[in-house]
Amino acid sequence: MEKHKMLELVNLKSGYGGSEILHGLNLSVANQEIVSIIGPNGCGKSTLLRSVMGMTPWSTGGVRFKGSDILGLESSKVVATGIGYVPQLENVFAGMTVMENLQIGGYLLPAGERRDQIARMLDLFPQFKSRKSQAAGTMSGGERQSLALAMAIMTSPELILLDEPSAGLSPKATDEMYANVLLLQEQLGMSVLIVEQDVHGVLEITHRTYVLKMGENDFDAPSKDVLNDDRIRSAYLGNVQSAGIETKQEAATH
Ligand SMILES: Nc1ncnc2c1ncn2[C@@H]1O[C@H](COP(=O)(O)OP(=O)(O)O)[C@@H](O)[C@H]1O
Ligand SMILES: [Mg+2]
Questions:
Q1: Which of 12, 136, 172, 214 is the 20 to 30 A CA-CA neighbour of 1?
Q2: Is there a domain that residue 77 lies in?
Q3: pTM
């Protein structure tokens, strides 16, 4: 049986003022699927996530979440339907403490539930337990990304959108971020849509990948096939020898 569709974009067009950036995109994310979006700088990856979140000046086409059309809803309503979002830049409040950032992540929740969720986040990310009153801006890049992720899952979303979570991180912090992404799916049952520049790393942790080209679909395929696709190897991976590379998702099916 086909897996239940969590998110479905049908002929999505979107842009800023008079300029159309997305020219009719199609994309889907199944229940508990981890899907990546890759493509050159400026091709519209962030705009795609912003369109889903109701953050672009205009969008047309179909944006369906669990079968309901959410296009045109304002961002807080989109969050309330069950979608979490970690933007590419400025995704924590640098001058505020870890605790205050978590409270902001859960501002839609009743106070009691917000408290319970903060306790859950401190269990999931124990590194924050002793640093509740540290200003977010004084933490490392990896810690800030973890905090941004914790903020976005305060509302227990069923789908989470991540915009280049590895940007600016060390290889070690990138691995930790990806481990967190797998944890969201494996332990919390979430679906994940992740935009990345770190093509090699993201293809290893995702099930399926969409390649965009100037605001349009180029192609999509299981991530393990994208890793071995000549178009991708020459454009993104510097033609690395990928034969014999086993992805983490493949390994998990053995
Ligand atoms: N706020 C904005 N106003 C006008 N144009 C924008 C804005 N944000 C992005 N763009 C343009 O939209 C295009 C796609 O940008 P973006 O979605 O950020 O690409 P990507 O995330 O793939 O690098 C680029 O040409 C960019 O200049
Ligand atoms: Mg971007």
A1: 12
A2: yes
A3: 0.91
